[in-house]
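Protein modeling request. Please complete all fields; requests missing the sequence field cannot be processed.
Requester role: graduate student
Desired output: 3D structure, token encoding
Chains: 1
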Amino acid sequence: MAFALIRRDGGAPGIFHPHREHGLVRLFPKDDSYFDEMETLAGHLTSAADLLNRLFQDRREPARLERRIRTEEHEADELTHEITSRLDGSLIAPFDREDLYAIARGLDNVVDLVEDASSYVAAFEISRANEGARELAGVLLRSSLLVATAVANLRTSGIDRDPFRESRRSGRKPTPRTSAR
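Delivered output (181 residues):
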């Protein structure tokens, strides 16, 4: 995909491949705020997972930790709503719109589940988590850190998404990419 662009220096318009800087101005503005919002949403997941892990490891302040998890969940819900509303009203998104919806909703769903787990701890007045629950909370925390790293890498992962680029260099025919949905 290429865009016709206007040169910053007032020269003749040119053809510009997205994500490459050649002194040309994009016809459509680049919007990196989706990446910022997704990283913030992943941060809510990591914070909620950390709080749940702490809740299961140390039961000295359960009410305070449960409130903080609930706050993270509400903030994640609000941010997810903002992201999906912006996607609904935007002409251009940095990735496929459905993929962005799925990432935002998936992250929010996990934060919702973390909040549910903390609510069950409170509702059933669990005074001490068993070893399995503590291990799972640790796995969730480590996984949330990996997810946050992957989300942060979305910003640069699309820089060269042209599936034909390598085949043009080598002279080979491109192989179609299939999605595992």
